[in-house]
Amino acid sequence: MRCFTVLGPSQTGKSTVVEKLGSLEGAPRKSSSPYGLNLTEFTFGNEAWCALDAPGPNEALAHAQHALLASDACILCVSSAPEEAVLAAPYLRIVEASGTPCILFVNRMDEPRGRLRDVIAALQDYANHTLLLRQIPIREGDRIIGSCDLISERAWRYREGQTSALIAIPENTAEREHEARTELLEHLSEFDDWLLEELIEDREPPSDALYAISSRVLRENRIIPVLIGAASHGNGMMRLMKALRHEAPPVGVLRQRLARAGNVDENKLTAVSFHAYHRQNVGKTVLVRALGEGLRQGASLGGSSLGAVQHLANGRSNSAVVPASGDVFATVKSDHLPVPSLLTSNAVAAPPEWTEPPTPMLERILVPGSERDENKLSETLAKLSETDRGLTVLQEESTGAQLVRAQGPVHLRDLCRTLSDVFHIDVTDRPPTPIYRETIAKPSEVHYRHRKQTGGAGQFADVKLSIRPNERGRGFTFSETVKGGVVPRNYIPAVEAGAREAMEKGPLGFQVIDVGVTLYDGQHHAVDSSEHAFRTASKMGVRQALSEGSAVLMQPVFRSEIHIPSIYSGSLVQIVSALKGQVLGFDRDETAKGWDIFRALIPGGALDDLARALRSATQGIGYFSKTFDHFEELYGKEADAIVRAHEEPGVAH
């Protein structure tokens, strides 16, 4: 079986392309996963094929990345509108990072939305590989009625519902065809000395030799050829499928590529797991592509026995099925197989670094609808995070509630639906409680005496403390300058412990940071003094001093790295400023052509707004990562509102 992925932005007709390709020589067999990855098995040219139709939303980019792990080649579907080229930037990025041979297919050419050369020029801004036209459109007025192949120099007229008809190259297309063919041959000659010599000697190379060269450079991933068509009308589908058949590399090349990227012995690499999902009453289903022979139910894979092998189309298990090298199959009761991963018979190897999904931007607390659901939620989220690497599961620091980081609102909605439909856990979501702190703005001194008489021994401790603001980021410090034994040395650790305990909650209701406490005097009683008494005196004294020290609210500030196509960089300054952030600068992203990395300091309370603004400004393409940087003072009405909200019943501290 040969396998390829079809990927690209939403609304570019990917699913239609797969449907038409699968129907060229018979009826395809389809299956799908809850995550939106659709699989189509079909036959073409007496060979078995499997097309992986990756979900289009940017929030599902991780599933497209994982599909490439199992693919000999891929088809990148793009719009025929030049201004929409930027929407393909994330896909060009992952295709090039993966090293997967790629054919770029400009779909919907029946809708005149711009010149093809402008589309290619706009896309080239995001591709390190040369995008090389293999066809040009034939126009009749504003309509595109066919295409001309630049290698064979044959022209084809589209016919609705039928194979295209061979025609002579129209006169109004001949000049453009000659120009585009010359450009094609010049680029191909960069990878073939014989062709370069033929061009220098002004000899016309035969078509079969050119096809062989173009096939080799695609298999070697030297260029990205560009084909055109309109899948909804079946136009260009046969040419696209023939290009895949003759030019996409065999499964052995994928095996070499994965072994090299994953630092695995090629001779031991048996399979790759690339997708998984949970089904009601079935459990975890793992999709695997065999990279060698000998796999069957019960065989050793990943260090344990392979579970039941299932047909993709009908989900039926068959112990007699023996997947051949290149076959794609599903397996259940193989929970030991992580996804994605490179698999030998005895071990599991981590996937290449390029499979790492974008950093999740949307943080939400999931609130279960009942106590029964609450007990199941944690375990279930752990299962789902194993099958969805775009999802991160944590616990909220202040409450211990289940915190999820999702790629965006669509991703979160799909997660909640899966929890309900598959695991029968109903949840609502809310934003996490922001982490605020407080400090003091001015120093103060306090004299606190703790005296208590009970039936037995009493309690006595007297402390004189100096409390002062520390420099930002220094945290809590304690020192002592007592002399003459007024506070015995064995009680000083208790004084420090009491001061630390007082820092747990300040006058505003938040944990206190960046404060220094000094014990400079005190008294003790030979009988009634104890560690508990001095700890209590210290705690109460520090609390009193904090209330006199002009408490100040502190908000968290995060250092953010925002990844965006360069055309959007100019808009970020205004976005960051509106969120009361600080622009630190930006650089070209050395790992992705046409992308920038924009750095800024963003208040923690504005991160949700940053995610929304970024999605809006970049059409859902941009994403950011964050790391805590520091706390800073927050004053005025905004601070007052936060303190009031924190004091309300039911608000987590």
Automatic annotation (TrEMBL):
SUPFAM superfamilies: EF-G C-terminal domain-like (SSF54980), P-loop containing nucleoside triphosphate hydrolases (SSF52540), Ribosomal protein S5 domain 2-like (SSF54211). Residues 433-550 form the Translation elongation factor EFG/EF2 domain. Residues 552-642 form the Elongation factor EFG domain. Keywords: Elongation factor, GTP-binding, Nucleotide-binding, Protein biosynthesis. One of its GO terms (molecular function) is GTPase activity. This is Elongation factor G. Transmembrane segments: none annotated. It holds the Pfam family EFG_III. Catalyzes the GTP-dependent ribosomal translocation step during translation elongation. During this step, the ribosome changes from the pre-translocational (PRE) to the post-translocational (POST) state as the newly formed A-site-bound peptidyl-tRNA and P-site-bound deacylated tRNA move to the P and E sites, respectively. Catalyzes the coordinated movement of the two tRNA molecules, the mRNA and conformational changes in the ribosome. It comes from Rhizobium vallis. One of its GO terms (biological process) is ribosome disassembly. InterPro entries: EFG_II, EFG_III/V, EFG_IV, EFG_V, EFG_V-like, P-loop_NTPase, Ribosomal_Su5_D2-typ_SF, Ribsml_uS5_D2-typ_fold_subgr.
